[in-house]
Amino acid sequence: MTTIEISTPDGPIDALCSVPEGQGPWPGVVVIHDAIGYGPDNEAISRRIGAAGYIAITPNLYARGGRARCVTRVFRELMAKRGRALDDVLAARDHLRAMPECNGAIGIAGFCMGGQFALVMSPKGFGASAPFYGTPLPRNLSETLDGACPIVASFGRRDPAGIGAAAKLQKVVDEKGIPADIKVYPDAGHSFANKLPGQPLLRIAGFGYNEAATEDAWSRVFAFFGEHLRGQSD
After folding, report:
1. Residue 191's closest CA among 119, 113, 130?
2. Cys-Cys with 118: which of 36, 93, 110, 199 at CB 3.0–4.6 Å?
3. What is the DSSP letter of 54?
4. For 48-72, what is each residue's pLDDT tens digit?
5. Among 113, 176, 106, 111, CA closest to 141
């Protein structure tokens, strides 16, 4: 696990990078952090992805001023589906593709806010997208997913922001013929795959880590990525 610098249209930003051990090349995954930003939780996620045989890069979307200053701007750009935050995600994709260790096949995964990014960016040159509870779903979902890559999505039934989200996403991918694996975990809430501070209080509010749901979701994601990313290259 290392911190690297990647070039973006608005200047360099920092990013977490995890490269598998052994002989590549490997597929890559751009990981989009949640609204809290990246830290120990995202380091663990990057290590998990690296251990599964994928290069993981997590761009710091709050690199230009920190969370307090940047979170409103990043959410605004996410809702508008344009701006520096989206450019940063594409820059991370391009950085991965240029790495000699990468075979050119790139997926995207995201959590909470990052899950929304994973859906918004799914038509933007990725081979597969893995949104974890990307709720509420992006506006104009059908239009957003025009030309989208295959999607493996995971939701918690106890997510207060996710009521009906899985069914709505399923309807759109079915209408568009997008290959998809969408699953709702009945005992999980929002942020079920993130180990955030204050777990007891989070669970009361419909949030919180759920190990069983996390392990099953990652198993599905890696199987899906294996189908759609492994063996592909430029």
Report:
1. 113
2. 110
3. -
4. 999 999 999 999 999 988 777 889 9
5. 176
